[in-house]
Hints:
The protein is mainly β. It has two helices and twelve strands. It has helices spanning 96-101, 130-133; strands spanning 5-8, 11-14, 17-20, 22-23, 36-43, 46-52, 61-70, 73-82, 105-110, 118-121, 127-129, 156-158. Strands 4-5-6-8-7-9 form a six-stranded mixed beta sheet. The protein has a three-stranded antiparallel beta sheet with strand order 1-2-3, with no helix packed on it. The longest helix has 6 residues, at 96-101. The protein is globular.
Amino acid sequence: MTVAIQKIPGGFSLDGLELKSGKCGCTSISTCCYSWSKIKKRDDRTFEFVAKTTTPETSDFFTWGYTATREGVTVTVLVEDARDKKIYSGYLPPAAGAWEARGWTIAEKNGEREDGAVWRCASCRWLYKEDREGAPFASLPDDWKCPVCNVGKEAFESIG
């Protein structure tokens, strides 16, 4: 079996797992401007994902990452993460266990991704973290609104 590698908007899909670049697109310096994610394809078999979720207001941060390999393809992930993040402009990579579930080997691991599924409001960039909120986003009622800017559920996107 070969590793399925596809170019997708903003990044790459490897065996169905997405790695996407993202950053704030506004022209001012807002809190979200400090956060970003970047996926780089070094060659046909080497991918590097880096992300920074911290901002100047971050008081509780940590670093985590891993290197996943399969059939000569290598994915390296390094994230400067914030436990207290409320907004974020990039995308989060899959947890190491998601790669393992698809037959990848985790060659190195430094720390652990702490967020479960995360959804972002397209309007204000507020994050709905399923683990912290206690309910899957899909289970929220159709008339649920963002607690910050009051837009509907349809304005949210899954970011990791």
